[in-house]
Design brief:
Elements: E1 3-8, E2 12-14, E3 20-22, H1 28-39, E4 43-48, E5 60-63, H2 67-78, E6 83-86, E7 93-95, E8 116-118, H3 122-128, E9 134-141, H4 147-161, E10 165-170, E11 181-185, E12 190-192, H5 197-217
Parallel strand pairs: 1-4, 1-6, 4-5, 6-9, 9-10
Antiparallel strand pairs: 2-3, 7-8, 10-11, 11-12
Helix pairs in contact: 1-5
The structure holds cytidine-5'-monophosphate.
Length: 219
């Protein structure tokens, strides 16, 4: 049984107690990964940003709101994990300051300038201290420039973030002839997944990550 940390869902970066910045993310990919891991007899832990949909029953879930909370929870869970899969849509920035309550909006027509600071790259932070553990990231890419360009961008992330596997996910491949999901392995192989929905893709992603972990654990 392999312990698998999965980050999923969006993060929310509050300007005040009511307003926030976020990303569009249902959490579905992370739920499919958690379910695939549990079904294969592994032990998933979901570190989950705010989602409307409920996570799969029976899976350990740590609820978080902001990127900084997700980072802290992911680092805690990673201490006892063998594999980490980062499917979360983390906000790249957060407001430099969070105001208490709900400050009134400026006078009619008045604009507002927000000062933002960069959030940490959670998966890169895990990968920097991974040792023998396996760290998998996602790259949501546009199919517009073609699959080779999307794979090149995904491979850039593999190197920059120190990952073992990148899941390149073409968000606009629906209806095109392109495969929607390609696994970019660190050994140079690109594996296009057969079309078949998130559940099948999740099972393959979990299997590939677990295989890497087992190969390492036996060497
Ligand atoms: O650089 P980009 O945002 O495209 O990278 C996506 C991958 O990095 C995903 O696996 C995502 O979960 C992860 N990520 C992260 N922390 C961030 C930004 C992205 O873990 N601050």
């Amino acid at each position: 049984m392999v312990a698998i940390l999965i980050t999923a869902g969006p993060t929310r970066e509050h300007l005040d107690d009511v307003r926030y910045l976020s990303n569009g993310s249902s959490g579905r990919m992370g739920f499919a990964l958690a379910l695939a891991a549990a079904t294969a007899g592994h032990q998933p832990t979901l570190v989950l940003g705010p989602t409307e949909l409920p996570p799969p029953p029976g899976v350990a879930v740590v609820r978080v709101v902001s990127a900084l909370e997700m980072q802290a929870a992911a680092e805690r869970a990673f201490a006892t994990a063998d594999v980490a899969i980062a499917a979360a849509a983390v906000c790249d920035w957060r407001p430099a300051r969070r105001a208490p309550g709900k400050p009134p909006k400026p006078a009619a027509g008045g604009g507002q300038t927000l000062e933002l600071v960069a959030n940490p790259d959670i998966v890169a932070g895990l990968a920097a201290r991974k040792g023998r553990r396996v760290v998998v990231g996602f790259g949501l890419e546009s199919a517009a420039a073609g699959m080779p360009a999307a794979i090149a961008r995904g491979r850039g992330k593999l190197v920059q973030k120190g990952l073992d596997l990148v899941v390149v996910n073409l968000h606009d491949a629906i209806g095109s002839d392109e495969a929607g999901i390609v696994l970019c392995h660190a050994d140079g192989r690109d594996e296009a997944l057969p079309r078949g929905g998130k559940d099948l893709a999740a099972a393959r992603i979990v299997a590939a990550a677990v295989q890497l972990w087992r190969e390492r654990a036996t060497t």
